[in-house]
Amino acid sequence: MPNDVKRIFSENPESDLWRELLQFTYDENIKRYQKQRGIEADDICINIIIGSFLQAYEYYKSAKDSNIQIAPLLLYYGSTNLLYGMTALLLGEHCEIKNHGMRIKINDIEKIAETQIIFSDPKQGGIHVFLRALGYNINLSEYGEWRLKEFLDSIAEISDDYAKCYDEGVDVGRIIMLDTFNTPEGNVEKVYYNDENESLILNKIQDVEGFENSYLIPTTGTAFESKKKYFILRHTINGQDVSEISYSGQPYLRSAHDKNGRKITLPTIVNMYVSLFVLGSLCRYYPEKWSPFVLKDNTGEKLLIEKFLFFARRIIPNIVLDNLLTRKNIYVSEKYKATETIKLVGEHQVREIIKKEVKSQLEHERLDRYR
Fold first, then answer.
1. CB-based contacts of 163: which residues, under 8 Å, 6+ apart?
2. Average pLDDT for residues 17-21, to the nearest whole number?
3. Do the Cβ atoms of 82 and 323 come closer than 8 Å?
4. On the CB side of 172, how many CA atoms lie within 13 Å of its CA?
5. Is the separation of the CB atoms in 331 and 8 below 8 Å?
């Protein structure tokens, strides 16, 4: 993911985002972009790029005006076109894709999120081709079977709704939201917990890939007024930041999955794309399962899926644009801000602050005597 950030004021982020993407439906813009990257595509590749972006736009427009009966399928088709066009634009060549690179199994599932996914064809399967284009050399077929829940629980924008929908006691999913605070010692982050989920939260924090190099050992604290308990996370001096930023601008950590005895952390765009494939396959090939769910769901799972579809429609094109322009493009106007506070400063730090202040005051008094 690009490190540079460009904040763009917009009263209609979705329209402005697509206006940026549709610049790649013009021959000269494509040639100029690829010349800057030192590549040159032939006319066939250019037509693939143009057609893919135009079709993606139409699919996304249709999905916005469609209900949940068909919206997942439209968004999956649109995202596939978008990623296909992105891949051709980045590489300057036509990549052969023979299949989706994944399939689903439903068996006797009680909830949509229990749908199983099996990955295949690491060379020419669509999901693997797109992963490589995005810079992730991952063979998902080596990690066994997955469930839709394992992708939904790794999407920050629906993490609260996920926890409410799939009431699994102390299981809080893979997303760990962070509250950032400015202190005299620099920025620190806190993660709330309670007596019931303390050990689980700590384990999930420690399951974040790269956590040990990025943070010091977590300490604990208690909010003065609410008495809420939290872990305090302080960054190491030279550690790489492993946190990510949600659509709202709030930072979070994403803990890894343990699949076939191996740790794996998938980026947001992959979690969303695979989820769209599952939902699109259900509404296209299993109407006997999908239609009753849409019409008669009484568990609240439908509301979660609808919220996911909204964020997928907004975020996937943004991530594609970020990768094409090698910067993070933020279109929202109000962003999460760090809270100014010193409540997280420990007792020893307070003593140091007082000591410095007293020393400074004494020095001022000493100088005043000689004036």
1. 172, 173
2. 96
3. no
4. 22
5. yes
Residue 165, amino acid = C
Amino acid 257 reads: H
The 3-state DSSP class for residue 72 equals helix
Distance, in Å, from the CA atom of 100 to the CA atom of 246, rounded to the nearest integer, reads 28
The candidate with the shortest Cα–Cα distance to 56, out of 33, 71, 42, 76, is 76
Residue written as token pair 């996304």: 60
In this structure, are residues 261 and 247 in contact, taking their beta carbons and an 8 Å threshold? no
Predicted TM-score of the model (pTM): 0.86
Contact 226, 181 (CB under 8 A): no
At residue 283, φ and ψ (nearest 5 deg) are: -75, -25
Return the minimum-mean-pLDDT range out of 6-10, 86-90, 297-301, 341-345: 341-345
Q: Locate 134 and state its tokens.
A: 């995005």
- Mean pLDDT over 254-283 rounds to 96
Beta-sheet strands, E only, within the chain: 5-7, 102-105, 116-119, 146-147, 175-177, 179-183, 186-193, 219-222, 229-234, 244-245, 251-254, 257-259, 262-264, 328-330, 339-340
Sequence length of the chain is 371
Instruction: Give the Cα separation of 319 and 314 in Å (integer).
Output: 9
Contacting residues for 166 by C-beta, under 8 A, at least 6 apart:
111, 113, 149, 153
Q: Could you tell me which residues are beta bridge partners of residue 179?
A: 190
Question: Is residue 182 classed as helix, strand or coil in its secondary structure?
Answer: strand
DSSP SS3 for 7: strand
In degrees, rounded to 5, the angle at the alpha carbon of residue 332 between the alpha carbons of residues 327 and 337 is: 90
